[in-house]
Amino acid sequence: MKEIKNVGRNDICSCGSGKKYKKCCIQQCSVNNEIADFAWRKLRQTEGSVIDNHLMPFTTQKLPNEVIETAMGDFFPDELPEGMDKELLFINFFTPWLLFNWIPLEDFGVEQFDPDITIALNYSKKYNSRLSSIEKRFIELISQTYYSFYSVLEIEFEKSIVVKDILLGTMHTLKERQGTHHLKRGDVIFSRILTMDEQSIFVGMAPFVIPTSYQNSLLDFKKWLIEENDNKPLTASVLYDELDMELVDYFFEIMTAVFNKPLPTLMNTDNELIQFSKSYFKLDISPEEALNKLLPLSLSKTADEILSDAERDNTETIKRIEFPWLKKGNKKHKSWENTIMGHVIIEGDRLTLDTNSEKRTQRGKKLLGKYLGEAIHFQQTLIESPEQKLRSSPKSGEANQTPSNLLEQPEVQEQIKLMAKKHWENWFDAPIPALDNKTPREAAKTEDGRERLEALLLQYERHDSDRNDATHFFKADINYLKSELALG
Question: What is the pTM of this model?
Fold first, then answer.
């Protein structure tokens, strides 16, 4: 029976009986949940018993030490990146692979040890009478499972996870608790899935999550695996019997790239190194007069709109004027009408120029001198790197915050809104590297292209969840994009 959700105890039961929920299906739902929980717990207990009471004692006490040493040499890369906990990998990841996946290919001098089957199957063959019926079934079923890369699509906290097998395209719902605490939609995990008595669980999951940005790289890897498989579709048996080590090696290849990834070099849209710069000047003229002379920097024909947002005192005298320094067009984004070069603040006899690069600062200083002549006097420039800027920024919750971030200004947000609108209008017909340099409209016409589009949109969704409020206009409307491309 399907669990009835969002029904109060005293509401009429949705099954149509006419009875209150507490007198009807709630009892059956509770019974079903208890049965499911019992089956799940039983499966986890069986997993623990098979590994801890049977296979590990057999491996460590009956087999020579060189067995584990040889398996570790086959499993681990020559060097693990700094930061990857080898002990954690050994316990959670290597041990299940050693027992259920590794084919020794030599008997190590052990009698009645078949080098062409796994340690688990060797144990089951030699000590079958020691295993309960459910333990035998567990070993039989897990010996048919395979490792793959799974994209997390849905999470129900403390209950379940819905994942998609990136390599085979299958969907799986797993009862899971611990994983729901740290996994997010869009994460990729490397594991195997065991299904037994209608319960599915992860067994031997790698303890490190693969970032969402690798979704399309994994599709490229899938394409390579198909080529390795004589251009035949991938199957569970092929992944287990023939490509197991390729999967493990690629996981470690990704992890090496993730852990060794250098800090990003932040560049602006003119491909200039980002440095947050504040230049201070003294003015010999009034703020309003300075604004009128500097109108070309704002690309405005009149000062009325800027003056309407100016701060004034009780006598209506201007105290503070702010406006963006704009330049027509953009080198990087051809659809942008303007580029925000910096921000100008005038307070009394003081002018401040904010920019995000040294070149823009130098250019801004020349333009200020050009338009204001001898009425402006340079005092000093203060420069902060992105790291310094982050450390010096006020923390959320602190009182009296007065951020001067130009992205938070209303007129700048209006510019961003227009840029974002044009960006997404042009997006459908722009070649994108993640889509094999096809446009989204072209990619939507093929199965491979649609799969890449789904991965790309999932990456957009995850990236947008980390955006701040000031740049929310650039967030992708996933439902709109899918609708336009006829994606399910």
Answer: 0.65
Whether the per-residue pLDDT at 32 is higher than 60: the answer is: no
**CB-count burial class (<10 Å; 0-12, 13-18, 19+) for 13:** middle
Can you tell me whether residue 66 is helix, strand or coil? helix
pLDDT value at 168 more than 80: yes
Residue 25's beta-bridge partner residues? none
The C-alpha atoms of residue 393 and residue 197 are separated, in whole angstroms, by: 54
Q: CA 102, CA 110: separation in Å to the nearest integer?
A: 17
Looking only at the bridges linking them, the beta strands covering 350-355 and 338-347 are antiparallel
Strand 188-196 and strand 199-203: the pairing is: antiparallel
Residue 263's pLDDT band (boundaries 50, 70, 90)? low
Residue 235: domain span = 147-259
Q: Does residue 255 share a domain with residue 340?
A: no
Amino acid code (one letter) for 131: L
Q: Is 27 helix (H, G, I), strand (E, B) or coil?
A: helix
Whether 21 is in a domain gets the answer: no
Any domain includes 267: no
pLDDT digits (tens, 9 = 90+) for 279-307: 999 999 999 999 999 999 999 888 888 99
Confidence of residue 428 (pLDDT cuts 50, 70, 90): confident
Of 259, 292, 318, the domain-final residue = 259
DSSP 303: S
pLDDT in tens, 382-416: 887 665 665 555 544 444 444 445 555 555 566 66
Are residues 47 and 87 located together in one domain of the fold?
yes
DSSP of 70-130: HHHHHHS-SSPPTT--HHHHIIIIIHHHHHHT---SS-TT-TT--TTS-HHHHHHHHSGGG
Does one domain contain both 451 and 409?
no
Q: Are residues 387 and 285 part of one domain?
A: yes
Number of compact structural domains in the chain: 4
- Confirm whether 36 is domain-assigned: no
Residues 280 and 386 in one domain: yes
Q: Which residues make Cβ contacts (< 8 Å) with residue 225, sequence separation at least 6?
A: 167, 234, 243, 246
| 88 and 156 assigned to the same domain | no
What SS3 class is residue 402?
Answer: coil
pLDDT for the residue 45: 93
Tell me if 363 is assigned to some domain: yes
DSSP 127-195: SGGGS-HHHHHHHHHHTT--EEEEEEEEEETTTEEEEEETTT--EEEEE-SGGGGT--TT-EEEEEEEE
Residues sharing a CB contact under 8 Å with residue 387, sequence separation 6 or more, in sequence order: none
